[in-house]
Write a structure and sequence with these properties.
A hairpin with a 2-residue loop joins strand 4 (50-51) and strand 5. The chain has a domain at 10-120. The chain has a 3-stranded antiparallel sheet with strand order 1-3-2. The protein has a two-stranded antiparallel ribbon with strand order 4-5. The chain is mainly α. The longest helix has 22 residues, at 139-160. The chain starts with 9 loop residues before the first strand and ends with a helix. It contains 8 helices and 5 strands. 46% of the residues lie in helices and 7% in strands.
């Protein structure tokens, strides 16, 4: 079973709508906002994306770039994971500390989030090139060799006389 542990705080749809100044019905369609939700979980938005003025632009550009390839949950998981290219800081703490969003995008391009498929399937083992088959000797070739060997032995026997 593949379980995720996502760290809050979270904002409800209404709270996110108020902070972003976007009507509730359009909120989930914004390409620069991360949200999660499902059958057993109401739609919630990660609070780190917002400040008192609305959607934080440094997060918006990173999220918008990553959403072209990855699902919201995959992006959230990656943003909360320490990244070697960012000095082992999480992208969230890197951006909170005033880090350059372009560096976060570059790190994501090089070693971005794992997709659902990558998380649930092991990487395939490297494929060894097949060894070429040994040359086959046809029945005719074997018979031909036996005949030649007999002829040689007969010639040797006749020459010995």
């Amino acid at each position: 079973m593949n379980q995720h542990i996502l760290q809050g705080p979270f904002l409800t749809r209404d709270e996110a709508s108020l902070r972003s100044h976007v009507p509730v019905r359009f909120l989930a369609h914004r390409p620069d906002l991360l949200h999660i939700g499902g059958r057993s979980l109401p739609e919630v938005y990660f609070a780190f994306q917002f400040d008192h003025h609305g959607v934080r632009p440094e997060f918006a550009c990173v999220v918008e770039h990553l959403k072209k390839t990855y699902a919201d949950r995959e992006i959230c998981e990656w943003l909360a994971t320490p990244q070697p290219e960012l000095g082992f800081a999480t992208p969230i703490s890197f951006l909170n500390g005033g880090g350059d969003p372009d560096l976060v995008i570059e790190a994501a391009v090089r070693d971005g989030p794992l997709t659902v498929y990558e998380r649930t399937h092991e990487a395939p083992a490297p494929v060894e090139p097949p060894t070429p088959p040994a040359p086959r000797v046809s029945a005719g070739d074997a018979t031909s060799r036996r005949r030649k060997a007999r002829l040689r032995s007969v010639r040797i026997a006749h020459s010995a006389r």
